[in-house]
Amino acid sequence: MTPFRLDEAIALLARTTRVLNALLSELPPGWAEKHEGADTSSPFDVSV
């Protein structure tokens, strides 16, 4: 197993929002904004 490196983790996490926005931006609203029930979030809610 590769040892944890904080600088690599920061580089990865810094891109997460852009990646999620790119993946979700052109999906139909039913896919990106759908909630599965009470106390749940949609993929769009998580990315903003």
Number of helices: 3
Order of helices and strands: HHH
Q: pLDDT average, as an integer?
A: 85
In one word, what is the shape? elongated
Main sheet? none
List the uncertain runs.
none
Domain count: the total is: 1
Structural category is mainly alpha
What is the beta-strand fraction? under 5%
Question: Termini distance?
Answer: 32 Å
Instruction: Give Rg in angstroms.
Output: 14 Å
- Give the % helix: 55-70%
Total beta-strand segments: 0
Overall description:
With 48 residues, the chain is an all-alpha fold. It has one domain. It is 58% helix and 0% strand. It contains 3 helices and no strands. The longest helix is centred in the N-terminal third of the chain and has 19 residues, at 6-24. It is elongated, with a radius of gyration of 14 Å. The mean pLDDT is 85.
Keywords:
48 residues, mainly alpha, elongated
Blueprint (SSEs and pairs):
Blueprint: H1 6-24, H2 29-32, H3 43-47
